Amino acid sequence: MKKSVLGLLCIAAITSAAVAGTETYSGKEMKQVAPPPCPQWYADNEFNVSLWGTYIFTGNSWQNDRYLESDHAFGGGMDLKYFFHRYFGVGIEGWAVDARRSFEDVFVDLNNGVFSDTTRHESRAVGSVLGTLTLRYPIPCTRFSPYIFGGGGGIFGGGEKTNVVANDGIIRTEQTGSETRAIGQVGGGMEVRMTPHIGWVSDFSWNFVDGSHNNFGMVRTGVNFAF
Length: 227
Fold this sequence. Notes:
This protein is mainly beta. It has a domain at 45-99 and 122-154 and 181-226: Porin (Beta Barrel). The protein has helices at 2-21, 27-30; strands at 46-58, 72-84, 88-109, 114-136, 144-158, 162-167, 170-175, 179-195, 198-208, 216-226. Strand 9 (198-208) and strand 10 (216-226) form a beta hairpin. The protein starts with a helix and ends with a strand. The relative contact order is 0.18.
């Protein structure tokens, strides 16, 4: 009996060793595959061209505004930017809007007792050119990039004044021409990239024009092309 049990144990040991000796491990089964890198939607040393529509509104009522003389206006513009190491960019921006103003046209003839007071309307283009500085932060592994910006330059096409002129019993109003003034701008927004070279931008800025009675807000949205 003891010999039989011992013989069975020897056979089991030899069989186990033989099976263990024939086991193989596939290198593919043991290899750990690294996850693919995130796609890069924003690049270093990137040149951007943006085209956008814009809506502006005055900080005061249009009667008190001294430059746009209109409570709101619509238009469009574009900007060119160059980004260094994807976070910091400098550029130039230009835009124009159709700002419709109202003014009083008064004529009084004291010699003949004539009085005329008419409210007139005038549509004119108001525009601006600014140098800009932009800081953006592309959120890793996403298409989104919030940004803030500021700039300064000149604005033209507005600032007309109504003067009262009296001569030989005639009193009337005269309109002066437009004036070019300094403008400052600060704002922020968001870009969403549809491809690494095409994105959609939307932002808001507050603009300062030579005095608190001239300030206005600007909303912009449009497409950005990155090269």
